[in-house]
Amino acid sequence: MRFELEPHHRNTKDDDLIADLRRVGNELGKASVTIDEYNDGGIYHATTLTRRFGSWFEALERAGLEKTRNLNISNEELFENLVEVWMKLGSQPKYNTLGKAISRYSSGTYEKRFGSWRGALEAFVKWANDGVAQQNEVRPQSPRRRTPRSPNLRQRAVVLMRDGATCRMCGASPNTGARMHVDHIVPWNKGGETVIENLQVLCEKCNVGKSDVEI
Ligand SMILES: [Zn+2]
Questions:
Q1: Gap from CA of 92 to ligand 1 centroid (Å)
Q2: 12 C-alpha to center of ligand 1: Å?
Q3: Domain parsing of the chain, residue ranges
Q4: Is 17 a residue whose pLDDT tops 90?
């Protein structure tokens, strides 16, 4: 499930994304590249590749790199999956709700990595909150603009936890079939910054119904 369109690199060709993934592999001198390694050395964000190709596994396959996903799933990939599951469920995922239909990884994978399901959720919350703290330390991109336009995944996770995947305007949730967006309260193009205080969960219908449509 996508929260919104990827604003950056939407028009980048598949070949360019794959070429950059190969380049990172070559520079590392490794037969495979993890998401964290790619985010450190890549031109794009790993999320751009996973969205384009469906999964990190698929991106590696296209690049002719070894597929290590099952052996070496990064914490970030596990957390990203949790955000997606949370959006689909409309509430905090529970151990027994991580079925194959909605989650790329099993509850057992989280349990093994973090010791327990509770431990996984605690690590997830810390990851999201730490990301927001980092975001607030972002250096100015321009004299007038402090933050990037698009909320990052950690910000979305925090907003989601705060608003409960329920539309702040009409109360719709994924349980009632709504698609959810993370939206600026004061629109970015009217000077609103991409900070937690200025973000809210809206359903697609309410978001599109606003005069200042953001996608
Ligand atoms: Zn709504």
A1: 20
A2: 32
A3: 1-72, 75-209
A4: yes
